[in-house]
Write a structure and sequence with these properties.
Blueprint lengths: L1 H10 L5 E5 L2 E5 L5 H7 L23 E4 L6 E2 L10 E3 L3 H15 L17 H8 L24 E3 L9 H10 L5 E3 L6 E3 L16 H5 L5 E3 H4 L9 E6 L8 E7 L2 E7 L12 H5 L14 E3 L5 E3 L2 H19 L6 E3 L5 H15 L4 E3 L4
Parallel strand pairs: 1-5, 15-16
Antiparallel strand pairs: 1-2, 3-4, 3-5, 6-9, 7-8, 10-11, 11-12, 13-14
């Protein structure tokens, strides 16, 4: 760990402030929290309510650290680093605190395993429980949260039996999306995540962007479309690509099992979207494997019906049709519309085809968001 910190300090030589972290001098910038400094220095401090895109909340208390001079452990995600501060992140006392907190959370969480298809962060809690060897039955008792399986929207599962009241879903909806479609009602064991008037998501201000699904650390909110593939054999593979629907260029991870696309997750480090997606980018991928998707070119024969053919004949017939139109009506009779699902190279060829091939600027594209 010392070598990690030393390397970090060498790469951040411009930082002027110093603090002591687990016995090592580290540099930091004004405004950084202890958690941010520790994470940058390779420290693995557990947390459940933290999302780097959101304002620090300090609700789960798993990120507790010892600060020299402080009477009690403090939440590292909310405490700002100060010059000369001395912090311990991994004492035996802190690890005991964290295990007990996790056992209390686990006491009302279902025992069933969480499939990673539920969402990007859906296994955060279960991974921490495994890391600390948590026994789920130690504090077994009253439960909070009531699942809304009757919510018949096709995109988001609301399995609130798994909810731990970290409020990441509520906060991402408010802070990142500005929708405020869900909120918190009640206190203690009566706490609920609800929509206005406790209705279904379809009747609320929800835009089905899926942000709440991807930030949920327990799988209480799940991607219903991806979950259809839970029973399919094979490991989940992620492939980084770009969403095909508009010109923003959101980075996404395509989830596949074998040769099947089973889900889409936003790339948290995507430069254009930073973990955000719209409803189309998140859920509209069924066209890829749709049974009616064309796999061969079709041409209309003398009988008026479409028949499969090879690409050579199809392209020759299309070219002939263009020539007849231009010869009869002139070049302005041709208008090109490029697809939002094509890469920029294909769009370049499309505009070249229309402008150079027909001598007209009548071309457009839906990728103008």
């Amino acid at each position: 760990m010392v070598s990690v910190i030393s390397e970090t300090n060498r790469s951040t030589a411009g930082r002027t402030h110093r603090m002591t972290l687990d016995g090592e001098q580290v540099a930091f910038d004004p405004g950084e929290t202890v958690y941010e400094v520790a994470s940058r220095c390779g420290k693995s401090i557990p947390t459940l309510c933290y999302d780097p895109r959101l304002e620090p909340f300090g609700g789960c208390r798993l990120c507790l650290v010892r600060v020299e001079g402080a009477r009690h452990p403090v939440a590292s995600c909310t405490v700002k680093a100060t010059p000369g501060m001395a912090v311990r992140t991994d004492t035996e006392e802190l690890e005991d605190y964290r295990k007990i907190l996790l056992e209390m959370v686990a006491s009302e969480n279902p025992d069933e395993a969480v499939d990673p298809l539920r969402g990007y962060a859906s296994r955060e809690f279960s991974d921490l429980a495994d890391r600390y060897g948590v026994t789920k039955g130690r504090f077994r008792g009253r439960q909070s949260g009531r699942s809304r399986f009757e919510d018949d929207n096709p995109f988001i599962l609301r399995d609130y039996d798994r909810c731990i009241s970290c409020y990441r879903c509520v906060r991402v909806c408010a802070e990142q999306e500005g929708d405020h479609a869900i909120n918190i009602a009640g206190r203690g064991f009566s706490t609920q995540i609800i929509t206005e008037f406790a209705g279904n998501l379809k009747e609320s201000a929800c835009t089905f962007c899926g942000q709440c699904v991807q930030t949920c650390p327990t799988g209480a909110l799940g991607d219903r479309k991806a979950m259809r593939a839970e029973s399919l054999p094979g490991a989940i593979e992620k492939t980084r690509t770009i969403c095909p629907y508009c010109g923003v260029g959101c980075s996404v991870d395509a989830l596949t099992k074998g040769d099947r696309l089973v889900g889409v997750q936003p790339a948290m480090d995507g430069p254009a979207n930073q973990g955000a997606l719209c409803i189309k980018g998140q859920f509209a991928f069924d066209f890829v494997q749709h049974k009616e998707r064309l796999s061969m070119p079709l041409v209309r024969r003398a009988d008026g019906r479409l028949h499969e053919t090879d690409w050579e004949e199809a392209l020759d017939l299309a070219a002939g049709g263009f020539r007849r139109v231009v010869d009869r009506y002139g070049e302005r009779a041709v208008y090109g519309i490029a697809s939002g699902r094509t890469p920029s190279e294909a769009d370049y060829l499309m505009q070249k085809f229309v402008r150079a091939g027909f001598g007209t600027n009548q071309i457009d594209n839906c990728s103008r968001a």
